[in-house]
Amino acid sequence: MQLTQFIQTLSWDALSDTTRRLAKLCTMDLIGCALAGSRDAGFTRLCAALREMEGEGDCAVWGTQLCLRPQGALFANSYAASLYDMDDGHRRAQGHPGAAIIPAALNVACQRGLPGRELLTAIVLGYDIAVRSALVMRAQGGPRKGSGAWVAPGVAAALARLLGLKGEAISHALGLAEYYAPQATQDRSVRFPSQMKEGLPWGATAGLAAARLAGHGMTAMRPHLADSDCLADLGEVFEIERSYFKKYACCRWAHPAIDGLARLQAETGLSLDSIESIRISTFEKALPLKNPRPKNLLEAVYSIPFAVGAFLVQGRVEPEQVTGSGLEDAQVLAMADRIELVEDSALTREFPEKCLERVELRFKDGRSWQSGVLSARGDPDDPYADAELVDKFRNLSAPVIGPEGCERALELLACLEDRPAADLVDLLTTHRG
User: Which of 101, 137, 223, 386 could be joined to 126 by an S-S link, Cβ 3.0–4.6 Å?
Assistant: First the structure.
């Protein structure tokens, strides 16, 4: 199918039940992650800066009563959604489409008074264009691009649809987004964790600007994606169905080891005092995530030893484990100090299509235990049950919008295709000053 035709004509009624279900699950999950992120002190400071830079407007910043101009609100919502690294991802794209596409689509659909089915359809096609753009960027070589680079065309596509762009204007929006997308050099940002993360807020705002400019007649190069064989199954295979979900507040690269140790604990009642050391065999790209003593949230999110240590000691890795006093837990730090990462070339060859690890425990009495090859739950071939994702949403959202707000949001999400998109935003922004 032609690229612009796909963006212009895809309909909610034409989507399978599976695709529709994933669109709603991704929206629910992403909103929960964003509401959790809105509680962070750094987010409050960011909003103050955006208010100073952009000025107040009529676009909601979720989890607050603050409204900013469109660029500022999108930057804030995208930042909050990706802050704890609990947002959905995609293996082939090697990153996170939802944290840019869903905030952009939801605020524009709200502004334009559009129904939920238009919002959800735009999200589906946005994922498709973002993931396929990631594959095009990988094929072009150069430094590996983080999510901020390839989500920009996905955001532009979703917003082109919601803004009613036609034909060549859609092509120009994608061309502008490809050209103006941030570089987002992923490997270096992983080595030096910071609030840049993967550049998602910049990619989101670049996509918004591209769609708006194209809508007002600005022209651009023909997008690389338009000439790619990545479009061969466009309209037949929907990339949102290949998304994975995350339970832990840490990089996906820590999840296989955590899930493997979770099963061992459940089966054997593993005593932490008996552990001498832990060796995690992993793929080459994960080796920089080795700092056992992170000093801040972002360093914690990008530390495999700390995440594994937090899970073993506290039984979970949620926002509380990677912020504040969670970073100073003596038992967690002692456990993290006993964890080392080593490369396994066989696992490196499987990356990025697969994110695999093996774990070896060495006990103080001289015994040892070795896992088989481990993958993470939440992938399409080992999905979380919908009820587990609903529990995650409640856990992340309740401290912000309250238990009753959570239930109202879940009821609305269940029938969102038949409700105004603005009804959902109203639930996310009226609870506190």
Answer: 101
- Give the burial class of 235: count Cβ atoms within 10 A of its Cβ; 0-12 exposed, 13-18 middle, 19 or more buried: middle
Q: How are strands ordered across the β-sheet holding 275-282?
A: 339-343, 275-282, 358-363, 368-370
Encode pLDDT of 5-15 as tens digits: 999 999 999 99
- Report CA-CA distances (Å) from 16 to 21, 101, 235, 237: 9, 20, 11, 11
CATH of domain 252-370: 3.30.1330.120
Residue 167, classified by CB atoms within 10 Å of its CB into exposed (0-12), middle (13-18) or buried (19+), is: exposed
Give the domain ranges of the chain. Answer: 3-247+384-428, 252-370
Query: pLDDT, tens digit, for every residue of 48-90?
Result: 999 999 899 999 999 999 999 999 999 999 999 999 999 999 9
For 279-320, the DSSP string reads EEEE-GGGTT---SS-SSHHHHHT-HHHHHHHHHHHS--SGG
| pTM attached to this predicted model | 0.96
- Output the six-digit token pair for 278: 């832990």
Q: Tell me whether strands 243-244 and 89-90 are parallel, antiparallel or unpaired.
A: antiparallel
